[in-house]
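Continuing the series of single-chain predictions for the mutant panel. This is the parent chain; the variants come on the following pages.
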Amino acid sequence: MPPIFGVLFDGIAYGMLLFLLSVGLSVTLGMMNFVNLAHCSFAMLGGYVTVTLMNMLGWPFFATLPAAFIAGAAASIALERVLFRRFYNASDLEQCLLTIGIVFVSIAAAAYIYGTDQQPVQLPAFLRGSIVFAGLNFAVYRLFLIATALIITIVLVGALEMTRFGAQVRAAVNNQRMARGLGIDVDMLFAITFALGSGLAGLGGALAIYLVGLDPSFAFTYLIYVLIVVSVGGLGSIGGSLAAAMLLGVSDIAGKYYVPAAGSILIYLVMTVLIILRPAGIFGRR
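Parent structure:
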């Protein structure tokens, strides 16, 4: 097979990683209209939980993944009740200032506790190998990332589009007063939605360590990519986020492979073109 297929595979795998990191923000920003720039801080928390449990307590990799999800969800519930809930009706600027402040605090805390070095993680042996097909090596861990992202997509779409919970969330977003009048606990719905989005960020952060590393700058570095995926995919569109993540992931990997001198800016050029052509995002509704 031509080398282009190997580039496509690596790009899709990287795109799936971006999707895992960004899908939670797509849910909270698109459905709750809350600008949460601290989203990748929850991803970083999930990553450090995995590193701590594996390297200090000897937990197996797969056992740390639920813990990373729970850590991100629990942290978001605490912040939602103490801070975020007070800013649901605030301006976008106020929400940005609040959440970017949380990013600074999280980075400082991570640097103080873990230092500024990259944190290693040891995957199980069966995830470190590769499968040879048609002359190309397909890394098993990348295949695992692709399968995980597809499963999460199916579960999320089913939960938000085909269940009573999803209907209640959409109703609460569209008209809070009417939803409360119908007996819907809007505050609880928003707390659950926030926990779900941040828990997925924690899971994504844990899964990202092996491919991209983990250090205190993670919360800022990947916030940029996450915002690109959400804006290109369209607010509140899980399918749009998936399509945008794969497109941007392939563009980024292909640019670095074929045009290494300018490969790092290709993802921004693709974003600019797509936003010009589709200001609301690929599958955006507004």
